[in-house]
């Protein structure tokens, strides 16, 4: 034991001696959103609770670009746990914190995503609303697009009705799918302006066999919508399905396996990724389930034996992201150090969607544990966000607190001092940074705080000159550790902050600009006689917009100069097309394509329909 402690101390000393941490500064210092007596995972287990709007809300063109945070909290020791939201404007100024639902029932663990067209957030959470004593998942929308402001949440409805929702596919009458996550695809199999919203929940019940262990198979609900449908999503045609592979694990067919996983959605693709543990609590495989038909039909299953390279139960609270031009998916797990059992490596796990190969990468210089005293299962929390070729991993690090807890000399001041750990790269995973640590001992902005359960924003905003803006949401607790898990309550407060991080450390002396993040669509669609093409492009330079007919012949260039462009914060474009060709002659009815080029590179192609 003494040798292990000496190794840990030596590691910290040498690590700090040679590390070159990326420069950063607080754009928004920690800002209190509200107090809470429920000090455990205020946001989602497996998704991101802080979402950034696009700059313009359509169809009315209201400025947006704000920040939505959706979380649960408990206002007093005897109050019910409920679901709240906070909204901050595009400058990070606090606007509102309030309940989403006014029903006085127990609610919790919300998921949220932002519709890329209307900028409306869609949130889901579980609650006790029916006399069957099962939790159901509810859903509501803040219809920001109606007035260009927050606080108009629609009346919630049950979007996953337990246990009925799972019975058609699982065959069991006690399923309870909770802990929902929400994802919105900018496209739909219906085409046109339709988008698809997904709600996925994990099964709270136990497996249906001889072992009766937690099963956590999933249900996936989805529906297609237009902006006009956001007032009442309950009226849509909702479909539900479970995933055959996870149902088999739950049914112990042939053996019980418990999947620790998360979901991600991009365009027509729905993926689940993570790893499974067996009845001996050993990691068996890392796996990916891929569907390329908007969640309908088969999920292709891919796996690789891990041979315990990820520690069981230590990295279950992660999310999944698409990256590298959506050719890969990644999440962060953790494995034991090769040299010391008390050290852990946060590890990037990736899967190539083209080659179907897995890859693993230890975060550079980050051989540090997330241990919260000895409770590995409840406190681990690894989140990752991607924008273009920038990637940031965020977790809660407690090595110095553990050394203080063990009585190691020199670490007395670190007792009950967890740290926010941030590791970044700007070149698709080739070069990870040293770790940025934020704590109450060394970070003036966190003085007197106990930061726990940290989440990054879902977008890294490009600030220019190789700088990115990272949004953060965390609990500032009053007691180190979760008191509500110990059946008593202490008051803490929920905080928002934002950092300006310099990505220059991996740029080889030249500015590494993240790949363009394009949102593009036209409205109305179909149209007659004219439509407007909207697009936003982070860090856009020279932009060209061209119209093509169905034969691939270019029929018109649409200029993107200042005289024809309406901008929001310099990146939002609104360009009309009156249905004419280069000679200003009306074109015939039919399908047309509009292609966007930025700095000479084709960035996006979309389809529109002219009907006369």
Uncertain regions: pLDDT < 50 for 5+ in a row? 1-19, 365-373, 507-511, 562-571
In the residues, how many domains can be counted?
A: 3
End-to-end Cα distance: 80 Å
What number is the mean pLDDT? 86
Please state the structural category.
Answer: mainly beta
As a percent range, the share of helical residues equals under 10%
Beta content comes to 35-45%
Q: Any idea what the shape is?
A: globular
**What is the total tally of β strands?**
38
The tally of helices reads 6
Radius of gyration: 24 Å
Query: How would a crystallographer describe the biggest sheet?
Result: 5 strands, antiparallel
Topology:
Blueprint: H1 2-18, E1 24-36, E2 50-52, E3 56-57, E4 62-63, E5 67-73, E6 82-88, E7 94-99, E8 107-114, E9 121-127, E10 136-141, H2 144-147, E11 157-160, H3 167-170, E12 177-185, E13 195-203, E14 218-225, E15 239-242, H4 244-250, E16 258-266, E17 269-277, E18 283-291, E19 300-305, E20 321-323, E21 328-336, E22 344-352, E23 358-362, H5 376-379, E24 382-387, E25 390-397, H6 399-405, E26 419-425, E27 436-438, E28 451-456, E29 461-464, E30 467-476, E31 492-502, E32 518-523, E33 531-537, E34 543-549, E35 554-558, E36 572-577, E37 590-598, E38 601-610
């Amino acid at each position: 034991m003494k040798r292990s402690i000496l190794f840990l101390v030596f590691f910290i000393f040498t690590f700090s001696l040679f590390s070159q941490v990326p420069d950063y500064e607080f754009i928004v210092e920690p800002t209190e959103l509200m107090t809470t007596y429920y000090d455990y995972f205020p946001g989602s287990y497996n998704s991101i609770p802080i979402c950034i709007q696009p700059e313009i809300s359509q169809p009315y063109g209201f400025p947006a670009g704000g920040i939505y945070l959706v979380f649960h909290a408990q206002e007093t020791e005897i109050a019910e746990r409920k679901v709240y939201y906070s909204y901050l404007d595009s400058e990070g100024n606090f606007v509102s914190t309030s309940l989403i639902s006014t029903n006085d029932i127990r609610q919790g663990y919300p998921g949220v995503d932002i519709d890329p067209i209307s900028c409306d957030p869609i949130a889901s959470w579980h609650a006790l609303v029916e006399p069957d004593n099962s939790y159901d998942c509810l859903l509501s929308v803040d219809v920001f697009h109606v007035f260009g402001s927050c606080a108009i949440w629609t009346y919630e409805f049950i979007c996953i009705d337990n246990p009925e929702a799972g019975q058609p596919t699982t065959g069991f009458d006690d399923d309870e799918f909770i802990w929902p996550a929400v994802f919105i695809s900018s496209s739909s199999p219906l085409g046109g302006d339709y988008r698809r919203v997904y709600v996925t929940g994990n099964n709270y019940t136990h497996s249906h066999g001889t072992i009766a262990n937690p099963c956590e198979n999933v249900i996936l609900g989805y529906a297609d919508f237009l902006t006009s449908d956001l007032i009442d999503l309950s009226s849509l045609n909702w479909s539900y399905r479970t995933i055959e592979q996870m149902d088999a694990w739950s049914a112990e067919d042939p053996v019980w396996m418990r999947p620790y996983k998360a979901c991600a959605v991009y365009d027509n693709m729905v993926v689940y990724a993570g790893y499974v543990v067996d009845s001996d609590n050993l990691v068996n495989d890392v796996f990916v389930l891929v569907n390329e038909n908007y969640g309908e039909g088969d999920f292709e299953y891919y796996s690789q034996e891990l041979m315990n390279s990820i520690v069981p139960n230590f990295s279950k609270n992660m999310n999944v992201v698409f990256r590298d031009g959506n050719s890969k998916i990644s999440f962060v797990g953790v494995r034991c150090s090769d040299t010391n059992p008390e050290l852990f490596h946060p590890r990037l796990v990736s899967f190539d969607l083209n080659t179907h190969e897995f890859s693993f990468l230890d975060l550079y210089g980050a051989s540090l544990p997330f241990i919260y005293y000895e409770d590995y299962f409840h406190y681990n929390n690894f989140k990752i966000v991607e924008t273009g070729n920038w990637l940031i991993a965020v977790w809660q690090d407690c090595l110095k607190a553990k050394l203080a807890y063990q009585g190691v000399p020199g670490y007395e001041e670190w007792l009950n001092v967890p740290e926010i750990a941030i590791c970044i790269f700007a070149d698709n995973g080739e070069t990870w940074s040293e770790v940025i640590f934020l704590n109450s001992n060394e970070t003036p902005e966190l003085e007197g705080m106990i930061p726990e359960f940290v989440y990054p924003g879902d977008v890294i905003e490009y600030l220019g000159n190789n700088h990115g803006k990272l949004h953060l949401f965390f609990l500032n607790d009053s007691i180190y550790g979760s008191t509500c898990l110990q059946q008593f309550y202490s008051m803490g407060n929920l905080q928002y902050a934002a950092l300006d991080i310099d990505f220059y450390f991996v740029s080889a002396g030249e500015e590494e600009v993240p790949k363009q993040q394009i949102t593009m669509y036209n409205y109305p669609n179909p149209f007659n006689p004219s439509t407007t093409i909207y697009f936003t492009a982070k860090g856009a330079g020279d932009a060209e917009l061209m119209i093509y007919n169905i034969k691939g012949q270019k029929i018109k260039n649409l200029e993107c100069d200042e005289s024809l462009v309406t901008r929001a914060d310099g990146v939002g474009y609104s360009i009309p097309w009156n249905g004419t060709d280069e000679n200003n002659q009306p074109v015939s009815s039919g399908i047309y394509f509009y292609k966007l080029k930025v700095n000479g590179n084709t960035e996006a192609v979309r389809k529109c329909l002219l009907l006369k």
